[in-house]
Amino acid sequence: MIAVIDMGISNVASVFRALERVGASSVETARPATLARAAAVLLPGVGAFGDGMASLRQQALVEPLRRAVAAGTPILGICLGMQLLAEESEEHGSHKGLGLVRGRVTRLAPSDPRFRVPNIGWCDVTPTRRGVLFPEARGGSFYHVHSYRLEPADPSCVAATIDYSGEAVPVAIEAGNLFGVQFHTEKSQDDGLDLLAAFLDHLRRQGRTN
After folding, report:
1. What is the pTM of this model?
2. Domain count across the chain
3. Fewest CB within 10 angstroms: 97, 107, 135, 207, which?
4. Residue 118 counted as domain residue
5. Which range, 6-20, 28-42, 191-205, has the best average confidence (pLDDT)?
6. Is 144 a known active-site residue?
7. Between 45 and 49, the higher pLDDT residue
């Protein structure tokens, strides 16, 4: 079972539909005990970093999420959910994140005026290596909506990038049992489903139920 966190600032219904299409069993939860039993945790979200962290604190989920990750439970952050894995963000001030991935969330700063902020639309994603999310190191086109980026302190965490204003901007990370994607898998049609299916295959190989 995959535990899906609803922060109240995202459409989790589309996430559940995508998980169902790849054969994953999932449940919406805000209960620490459910997180402790889950095969994996999925953290989707849209909107501002500060609002996301405030929602997690209000639901008393910050420490349970940290404990689940420390116990080895895989976690996949989607869009804002990926950014929340970081130590801090500069969005609308300075905000502390979950601190699961060393690094900061900073605003996109294109040098080419043809690139807009926010970055909205389909972007070609290029894997940096084979891994869980991109087992064949095959890229694809994924739907993005973001004004900020997560820059991990350890470049080896980066699993995929996009070419944005002449710069390779990280849009996917892998580090142990931590995973994140800046794009919306649930809105990215076949490529998004393929990525979720790859994550599910990883759980099965680990002997975790789906």
Report:
1. 0.95
2. 1
3. 207
4. yes
5. 191-205
6. no
7. 49
pLDDT of amino acid 106: 98
Residue 51 is assigned to a structural domain of this protein: yes
**At 15, phi and psi to the nearest 5?**
-65, -45
Report the alpha-carbon distance of residue 165 to residue 112 in Å, rounded: 5
Spatial distance between the Cα atoms of 78 and 6, rounded to a whole number of angstroms = 12
Q: Which domain holds residue 25?
A: 2-205
Residue 87 catalytic?
no
- Would you say residue 36 has pLDDT above 90? no
Which CATH number belongs to the domain containing residue 94 in this structure?
Answer: 3.40.50.880
79 is catalytic: yes
Taking CA atoms, 174 is separated from 25, 27, 35, 54, 77, in Å, by 22, 23, 20, 25, 11
Catalytic residue among 95, 144, 186, 202: 186
Three-state DSSP class for residue 57:
helix
Mean pLDDT of all residues in 145-157: 97
Distance between CA 96 and CA 53 in Å, rounded? 8
Of 79, 123, 174, 202, which one is the catalytic site residue? 79
